Amino acid sequence: MRxxxxxxxxxxxxxxxxxxxxxxxxxxxxETLAMVSILPDQALPLGLVVTEDLxxxxxxxxxxxxxxxxxxxxxxxxxxxxPSVAILRMCACGSSFSLPxxxxxxxxxxxxxxxxxxxxxxxxxVQLSGLPHEARRPEVVALxxxxxxxxxxxxxxSLLGLGPIRLRLLCPAIYVFPVSLPRVFxxxxxxxxxxxxxxxxxxxxxxxxxxVPGPRRR
Length: 218
Fold this sequence. Notes:
By secondary structure, the chain is mainly beta. It has helices at residues 52-62, 85-91, 138-145; strands at residues 6-9, 17-20, 33-38, 70-72, 77-81, 97-98, 105-110, 121-129, 150-155, 165-172, 179-180, 184-186, 189-191, 194-197, 211-213. The protein is elongated.
């Protein structure tokens, strides 16, 4: 029987983040939700300022009578609920869509995240360097990896020898590698550890040798 737990990761990078394992349950996203982005490099009418009121006015001109619920995500991005899937597909069929009142060009893409989503986790292959030989064991790598992200896979063959250890992590998309971890002591011996993006394994295909999944709490 799986036991839900609030797990804490990334504490060695940028304040950390919490993960609750939902057992593969997918978060629901309304089919009519889309991301509307103001396209860059376009000449706006003199004095025009893109505000929430302006976007609401433009959307109501597309289809009067629909309330057009929306949420501002950033200075140029809006999560918008369209009146129907058909209208969303019609507006998103091209590379850009011109809003009717000021001919403001926008990109419209069906959203892959719910309106209240503020961030997502990305799965990336990284290389861990600096681990002492005696600590090159799966259980130790699993502990160290928590300082950066949630371990999902470990390239077992990389534990052999003296080179970097390859592992796959779930971590916030905003992370910028390489990451130098705060000094880690193995008993009384301190080491500076470095986590770098593995350019080769981050592409399609994954690891070239047998791997094992990361630990799961039950």
